[in-house]
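Worked example 2:
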Amino acid sequence: MTQLHETWGMPEKLSPAQLQVKTNGSQGTTHTGNPEAYAGVKWRKGFTRYLISSDVFIVFTTLLAFGILQESTSGTREIWILCAAGLLWVTVMELRRTRAPRILGSGAKEYRSVVESSAVAGGIIAFAAMSMNAIEYRELVLVAMPIGILALLVSRWGARRWLYHQAVLGKALSHVVVVGSVADVKYVMRQINSNAGPAYRIVGIVTTDYSWNESIPSGMSCRFGVETIEEAIASAGADAVIVAGQLNDGPEALKELCWLLEESRTQIIMVSSLTNVAGPRISIRPVDGLPLMHVDLPNFSGGHHVIKRLLDIILSASALIVLLPVFAVLAVLIKKDSPGPTFFVQKRVGVNGNTFRMFKFRSMHSNAEELLDKLQSQSEGSGLLFKMKDDPRVTQVGRWIRKYSLDELPQIFNVLRGDMSLVGPRPPLPKEVQAYEGHVGRRLYIKPGLTGLWQVSGRSDLDWEEGVRLDLYYVENWSLTGDIMIMWRTFKVMLNPVGAY
């Protein structure tokens, strides 16, 4: 996914009718703006205020409720201590920028920031309690704060859902102008329109090569040359500029653009050329005014993988126990629907090219493999995958268990055995691996998954290239927080299936 490295400047007191801009000491020039677009500035400030209020309410309510329930907490001194703890917690969240606009609304960073800042506050409180030998407050850190963290996460999730629904209605979006070469602008527009979620609405484009040979989407302006950027911002009412690639005059042009826009407090968003490197692997370290971008190497072993494996064992074992009645019902339905075995066993390729037997509930007639060669000419897929929406080999029961991904439940046993992980790349067939070209084989650096980015991003509707891109992105950038979010999105996709056939 496109990485956007952002420098946020919150616009202040912008008139709905105009924007005052200045260029290198010249007289200010007034441009007529778009009142609807300027509403984007207001919603962001209002949304931030709501989060502040919500966080403060949850923190103090949790701690004071804990105090009331504790028999030992009845005096004024104890109440003041709880208030001090709440103030510390809220302050740490503010200092660690848990409500920074660049992390709100999408990705795992917002949730991770809330958990990490709360952990820091808990550590400080625990240290203070130990220093004062106040062991009676250990429940505060061990019980009250975890409950508060959970409540904060639920609150952020609810706010994110509201933000998403507002974005669907065309509201609560940052209005942006994209500047760069035609090729770079087109790429950014395509990625934002398909992947950005509740974040950006492109209201204008500025090309640096003075050309645009396609129709302009409705509600969007097009100008040529960086010198027209102020006019583009004012006329479209934008509150941000996305620099889509290298400008003609290099770093000097970018520096001058930042100076040009600082008067209007317009945010600058730079598109990184590292399009398949996730944010947590990127850090910027200035050396004598030279910003050096450090990219951590991907890890394919180590402590995080041990924790991932422990999580796989615990969750897969629990799921097998809980889902045992579901397995029994599905087995009976499959047996009654068509002759053949209950389970379909197929050889797949796992980590480092090792093969394993993958289990699925049988969703096709028993002679499906024999019929495959006859149907190859009717494949609707691209690349190495066979796809067919109305596949005649699929049984009646198979059609709906495939729709809701119930046919893949036996793979939980593969996860428990260690052949697969709960989250990972799609498990490929041996014939697919034999046809791999270039760097596609990097998909085999980690265990394949029961679900993954491909599962929650369209499944069979994805073409081969997009599926490979998602898998390679996951292989190099996976995290435990990301895995949890993918599992959560998987449940949502199972209830509202897209691209499953």
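Residues 1-34 have pLDDT under 50 and may be disordered. The two ends are 25 Å apart (CA to CA).
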